[in-house]
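Task card 7
Instruction: Convert sequence to C-alpha cells.
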Amino acid sequence: MATVSLVAGNCGRGRGVEDGRFEFRSNSYFGKDFLASELLNSSFRRAVWYRSKVLKVSGNENGRRFSVVAKIKKGKKHDYPWPDNIDPDIKDGYLTYLSHFKPLDEKPKPVTLPFEKPLVDLEKKIIEVCRMADETGLDFTDQIGSLENKYQQALKDLYTHLTPIQRLSIARHPNRPTALDHILNITEKWVELHGDRAGYDDPAMVTGIGTMDGKSYMFIGQQKGRNTKENIFRNFAMPTPHGYRKALRMMKYADHHGLPIITLVDTPGAYADLKSEELGQGEAIAHNLRTMFGLKVPIVTVVVGEGGSGGALAIACPNKLLMLENSVLYVASPEACAAILWKSSQAAAKAAEKLRITAQEHFKRKIADGIIPEPLGGAHADPVWTSQQIRLAITEAMDELTKMDTEELLRHRMLKFRSIGGFQEGKPVEPERKRNMKPSDASMLNAADIDSDLEKLKKNILEAKVSSDPITEQAIEKLKQDVDKEVTRAFISMGLQEKLESLKLELSRATDNQTVKRNLKVKADKLMQEFKQNLSRPGAYLGLKQKLEKLSMVSRLIELKEKGWKLKTEINQRIPPEIKAKLEQLEKAQASLSKGDLLDKDLVAEAIKAKKELIEVLKSANLEIVGVAKRNVADAAPELQEKIVSVKKEIDGEIERVIDVAGLHGKIEELKAEMAKDSSSPKVEQLQTEIREGIRAALDDTALKQKVENLRREFASSLQADIDDKVTAENGRW
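Output:
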C-alpha cells in the first residue's frame, strides 16, 4: 500500500506564497511504480482549484499548513488482458487473460421447473428416508432403492413425453450450459477475439479460435449469463448491431484463412431498443445473411438453447443445422404469438404447439439436419456429457463437409435452404383471398347479429305449437357448441387449461369417499371463481359474454314455455268435455267477430257462462286465479298501439270513400230512422244486409286484410310473450 502527503502553504488568505499555489511533496515511496508516482504528481498539479475534504490535518493553526494522506489500492496484477510471462509451449486449456469468462465461485442453485414438481416430491421422500436411516441406524436399502427406481422411471416418462412449451422452459433453464461452457468443454485450446473494429465489443456475441483434434475452427456464439449479474452484462444474449458486425468480421477472417466456422445459437432475439435500430440492426442482420451464403468454408450451426427469429438466423445459415434435443427455434416467441392471435400471453402453450418450435418438428420438416441427444433432465443435468455429444456431431458433420470442394460446398448450402418448405404445381390459385389473422375474432358475432339470432329464437320458441321443435333445438345446440368452444379458448388464454385437465383427471379417478368429493368440489369452485373473475374484466372476452347472455335468455324462455305447456296439459285434463265444446264454439265466434260478423246475444251469454265454469274447474284443481288476461288494444306495446290506430283510421277512411262512391248515404239515414223506431224490426236487418253487401261490392279490401292480419299476429305474439313472462306455477298459482 502506498501513502502520499500533500503539503500546502498559505492558501487560505493569500499570504506566504505569493501566487497561492499548492506545493506537493512525496513523503513516501512507490517502489518500482515510478510512472504511477509521476501520474499522481501531475494530477495534483492540475488540481489548483480543487478543494478536498481534509483527511488528516497536521501542524499549527497559525502556520496555515496541512497535509492530506491518501491510500492507493493496488489492483490484481495483470489480470486482464495480458500476463507478464507467456508460456510459448502451452499445449491445452484456454487463454484466461483474453477472456472475461471465468468459472463461477459458487455452484448455481438448483431450479425446479413447474412440470418437474412430481420429481421434487420423490426426491424429498428419498432424502427423508436417507435421513431416517442415518438417525436410527436401521437398514432402509430396499426402500431407498425402490424410491430411486421410481424416480428414474418417473424422470424417463416425463422427459420422453414433453410438450413444446415444456421443451421451451428447458431451453430457457437458468442453469443450462452456455455457448462458452460448451466451447471450453470441447476445445483443447481456445482464444477469444473481441471487437467489431467499429468502436464496440458486444459481450452478447462471443467469437474466437479453438482447436479440436488438432484442427482449428472459428467459433461464434450468442452468450447468456449464468446469473443475474452476467445476464445484465451479456444483455441476456440479445446482440446489438455491433455484435452481428463482430460476427461478420470473424466470418470474413475465417473465410480468408480457411478456418471452418462453428456457430452456437442461444438467443431470444436481436436487441430491439431504439439505439440498436438507429445503428442499423436490420441492415446488420441482412448483411450477415447475404455474406454467409457466399463463404467458401464449411459452416455448422448448433442450436444449444433457444433461437429467436432473425437474431438467431444472422449466424445460422449453415451447411448443417444441428439442434439439441430440448432446444427450440422459432420465428416469434410463443408469448408474443399468443398476444397477437389470442390477445393474451397466457395462451403461450397453444401457440408453442402451433408454431412447431421443437427440434423434432424441425427435423421432420428437414430444417434441422440432426438432433443431438441430451441427458434425462436436460443439458444442465450433465453439461460435460452434452458438450461431448455436440463435439461428436460437429466432428462428423465437418468430416463430411471438408471433403467437398468450394463449388460443392456453396451449392450444398444453397440447396439446403431451397429444399425447405413445399409447393404444389397445376393447382389454380385464387387471385384474391381474404385471410383473417385473428381466428378468435372471426368466431365473434357482432351485437346486431346476436340480437337478430336472439329474436329469431324467441319467435320460434313462442310460436311453437308443440313442446319440442327440431329447428329450435338445433339452433340451441349450435349455440351451446359455440359457447363451449369459446369457454375452452378462454380457459387456455387465462392459463387455466392445465388446472382444468388436472381436475378432470382427478374426477375420473375419484372414489365414493365423501372427503375426496368435498375436496374436489372446493377445487372446482375455486377454479370457477378464478375463471369468472378473469371473465368479468372490462373489455375482455366480449364475444363469450354476449353468447353466455344469449344462452341464458334462451334457457329462461324455454323454461317458461315448458312450464306453460305443462300447466296447459294439466288444465286440459281437468276440463270436462262439455266445457271444451263450449270453448270451441267461443273460438269460432271469435273468428267470426274478427271477420266483422255480428255476435248472437245467446252466444255472448254462453261465453260468460263458460268463463265462470272454467274458473270453477281451475279452482277445483287447486289453481288460484290471480288475474285474467284480456285481449285489449291497451295491453299491446306502444309501438303496436300506434300501428293499430293508424290502420283503423285507414279502414274508416276507405269505408267513407266507398259509401260516397256507392251512394249509400240515403240507406244509412233510413237505417238510423228505423232503428230509432224499432231496432228489432225485419226492415232494420234488411237495410243492414244491403249496406254491408254494397260496401263489400265496392271495397277492394285485399291490402287492408293483409295489414289487419299482420297486426293480429303481432298482437297475439306480444300478448303471448307477456303472458309467458307472468306465468308462475309455484304454490299452485296461475
